[in-house]
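Issue: copy button drops trailing tokens. Both records pasted manually instead:
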Amino acid sequence: MSARRKSGNRLLPKEVRERLQAVVVDANAYGQVGPDLSSLAELAKELSTIGIQVWVPEPVAWEWADHLANQWAVARAAVREAAPLHKAGLLPVLHFEDHYKHRDAVVDAFLDRLKAIPYVEVVSLSGESALEGLRDQVLQRPPAKKKSEVKTGGSDSAWLRTVLAKVGGAADALLFLSSDGDIKRAYEAWGHPPPLLCSVRDIRGSLFEYLPASVEDEWLIAESLVGRMPIDLRASTSEIDRAIIDSVVGLTAALRYHPDDEGITAAHLTRLTALAGLSRVKRKRADLDHEDPSGPDTRIFVADVFFLAEADAVRTVQNSLSGEVTTTGTQSGAGLLVRAAMTLTIRDKAIETMRSDGEAVVFATHRRFSDSDEAWYEVAQALSAVPGLRMPDEWGEYAGEGDQQIRVAGRDQTLELHWSRSEWGALSVRIDGEEATVSCEYDGTAWWGGKDGMDMEPPYYLFAEVPMDYALNSEWELPAWIITQLIKHRDQPDA
């Protein structure tokens, strides 16, 4: 298969992607002024997962810094010119944060931020490449050219030579985020095949076999799974249900987490009680390229799926005198969280096939925390597994007490939140007249030694009051309840 040299929005052939070492960012990749650093950071992190680096050549970084310094000067002047309007009461006071005394300070600050982005490398020019770039400009060798009789192109030539040298001259090891024809001219002049060029908008579709799923797709998966809950793993004959959990790790350790559970030597999952969340949900790219609009709506997804679960455990006792080990029977254990990596095929809004991608990991949920901040961080992490739920920026221990309403993306439904600062904080969520609460509590019995004593174990824990029988008392009851409630009331309009 021949490689398409302009990637467009279609997945590049596997052999082309396997040769790539780096994505090189040109100055025009994000428009005429400068980059969106948060977008660049996110892209670099995603590309690192498939072994592709992100390089910003040093002259590109300088050009961005120069443009941004010019914008800073324009903005400062505009704020100063608006002063009469402020004094006349025609405009509110505009606070121009003058952190920088001069444009060089802007340049330095931007370069420092760029270099601090994880997985992004600012590639320094080599002396040899800089010299050859200057020769190209002076002698007008491609990609150098004239603009209004001014010789230009030395900078582009220099950084192109540098990144090519960095991959040992393997021109097909680089993909450029650029719309610049000068890269094509340089490759042609230097005897390379046409370069791979791509836009920021299209790069994910060009390099990833799986793309982030839409929030609507996440809810489609959630509804399909909730419709199968609870699942009795001992009795179910459904191949789909059995495929959810092929094998597990960490189950015995999770059951031993509580001191009363010492002596457990073996265990197995018996029941999945509820869907607690989804994360890293992606849709297979190939089916987007080749789907038949006239055929059934079939989609392939991969996701990390969280389930609340129960298990049976075998307890044994060893005789201290004889050393004989005896089995004392089995006990049921609740309060477990299972994280399973799964591939799901959904056809016409129903699960057609499902398989586990490796071992599922089991965690204990009745954990203790060293402080309330740690406990509320875990609550926030659990809530992030609810599709489309974005908690307000200000909530939690440092927010003021009060109420707030938020819409859930992908659904025409509202959550009512109430944060209470009483004791160590409590979060209540109301959906269609029903309410669930998670609070942080302090166990005073963990303290030993009087005034000069100390906590002998982490003293904080989470207590859940949820109108469903999950038996967890942990942060994961709340997202499980939210998902179930939103699906339960999906056809009912907001009150």
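Record 2 (pasted manually too):
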Amino acid sequence: MQQTLKTLMLTAGLLASPLISANTDAQTEALYQQHCASCHGSDRLGGMGPALLPDNLSRLKKDQAEDAIRKGRPATQMLAFADVLNDQSITALAEYIYQPPAKEPVWGKNEIATSHLLPHPFGSLPDTPVYDADMMNLFLVVEIGDHHVTLLDGDRMEPIHRFASRYALHGGPKYSPDGRYVYFGSRDGWITKYDLYNLKVVAEIRAGINMRNIAVSADGDHVMAANYLPHTLVLFDADNLELLEIIPVENDAKESSRVSAVYAAPPRDSFIAALKDIPEAWEITVENDRAKVRRMQTDTWLDDFFFDPGYQHLIGAARDGKHGLVINMDTGKTTADLPLPGMPHLGSGITWDYQGTRVMATPHFRAGAVSIIDMDTWKVIKTLETAGPGFFMRSHENSRYAWVDVFFGPNKDKVHVIDKKTLEIVKTLQPTPGKVAAHVEFDRYGKKLLLSIWDNEGAVIVYNADTLEEEKRIPMNKPSGKYNVWNKINYEEGTSH
């Protein structure tokens, strides 16, 4: 009792004093509850603001977190605290949010169901667009600078609408099969369903605390979420995002795993899940709104997946960053080992026809190279040297060229253009010296393409896909991914899925 009273007195004195210093854990906790909990949750699981847990903050360095506390964040509700907290308190708060909670947080059926928001139930909005455009040639551009999304007319290359998104979208938006709806996933676990006809959020739900991505089934009936925390896959009805099932991710020994990603496999009418901590890949089919899991044992842990066009083979990147495995999806057996020494970014891989065979190409996180692989023999037929490690690679069936950035390293302001017929780099562009140039997406016809300048005062650059000449720049706030409706719903060979 005396200790409780002492803590209360300490906290009361702490909250009453200006520019206070956090000298103890109790003082730091009190600072958090006073200044942060209303937006980020008393348990740090998030609310109006994002979750403040170590895994959720993995891409934010501690000095950046301190800077955000001190100066706030433009175009968000994150206030500046430099006039309220001294440097010691700001540092203590930054340290605090990077510490794991004493008790692992829970996010189960009740928490998911309680988070459900349904402003416009399925079927309640008009079935005609409120603007005039080719609905199959729309782009969505994710602007990570201030957490917004711009809807772009792919014919006129002009913005139609711009709307706020949840914090830190990840894994790319996924469209319904008819292209009317788009589903966004955030690192904090939120799934947002957006109506592109009526330009409205129609449903939201929080699937987890730390989510990697989402996938939409080939028939458009279901949405599945892949979580890091908790270790679950979560199945939803696509109409109103109603919870159907929580699937614990564990092996026969009850060892649990984070889920690296989940993918739709349209020809198989299934989902494929990549597991982070168990050497397995899962294929999940859904019957009568219930999930059935088929496990494929792998020789090692796989961090990233790619699929051949028919989804007969899964290509996974081994976590050691030295090779990849080819798995027959019907038998679940490993059929080939690929020498890929630079940690390939297989999720960004593309395919095309080359001299009568299908090839796939992938950039690498750790090497300045693009590997080109014959998908019949599973042999690397060429390795192109690039100006640095790359992140994204894109093309289109109707284009002669493939584009790859060099996202990592000193040449990140450059992008290479590869001739798919000769397998040679034919041009290197430097659209804005000193600023990152990354992530290409073509229009539905393969005639024009968009390239991002990843900067708060950035832009989307429109290029002619044949002449490789710049046509215009559309100013945007750190635009990252761009997603064309036609390319995504038709699984165009030159784009990510």
